[in-house]
Amino acid sequence: MVQLNDECMMELALAEARIALERGVFPVGAVLSAGSQILGRSYKTMISNHLNHAEMNLFHQVFEGDYAFSRADNLTLYTTLEPCIMCFGTMLHLPITRLVFAMEDTYGGCAHVRLENAPPRHLSRSIEIVGGVGRLDACKLFADFLDATADEFWLTGGAPHFQATVKAEIAARRI
């Protein structure tokens, strides 16, 4: 079920992604909310640091020190790209009950990882997952990044599945 504010919240995540893009960084943005209340916003920082994902930056911002959030608060994470295993795994440890992402990550996304064989702690972590909200806008940002980047990883064909998905989507829309 798509909540009425999903598109608005995703617009905020896309705005964060644009900040990353302006800085030459892979354009992922993230927002955490409790209903319509925004708890935090962030974007991916540092091109070569694998820990500074938008989601991880956001988690550090919102969940540092003592916090009073619980799963009853119905926290939703909005992100412009399907989370990787690090971000998804971290999300399982936090009181987040809903994930909304714009574009699937065909190279490293983990939002649809099956948890039947997970340790008991994670078996009880039910997370509603909604994909595709703001997908085309996110895809355009990723295409802009791929067109402008000087990062060797991307120039030499890094994340080939992801690059192919972005290029196919853009080509389909230009026809």
Automatic annotation (TrEMBL):
<dbReference type="GO" id="GO:0002100">
    <property type="term" value="P:tRNA wobble adenosine to inosine editing"/>
</dbReference>
<dbReference type="Pfam" id="PF00383">
    <property type="entry name" value="dCMP_cyt_deam_1"/>
</dbReference>
<dbReference type="GO" id="GO:0052717">
    <property type="term" value="F:tRNA-specific adenosine-34 deaminase activity"/>
</dbReference>
<dbReference type="InterPro" id="IPR002125">
    <property type="entry name" value="CMP_dCMP_dom"/>
</dbReference>
<dbReference type="GO" id="GO:0046872">
    <property type="term" value="F:metal ion binding"/>
</dbReference>
<protein>
    <submittedName>
        <fullName>CMP/dCMP deaminase zinc-binding protein</fullName>
    </submittedName>
</protein>
<dbReference type="InterPro" id="IPR016193">
    <property type="entry name" value="Cytidine_deaminase-like"/>
</dbReference>
<feature type="domain" description="CMP/dCMP-type deaminase">
    <location>
        <begin position="4"/>
        <end position="126"/>
    </location>
</feature>
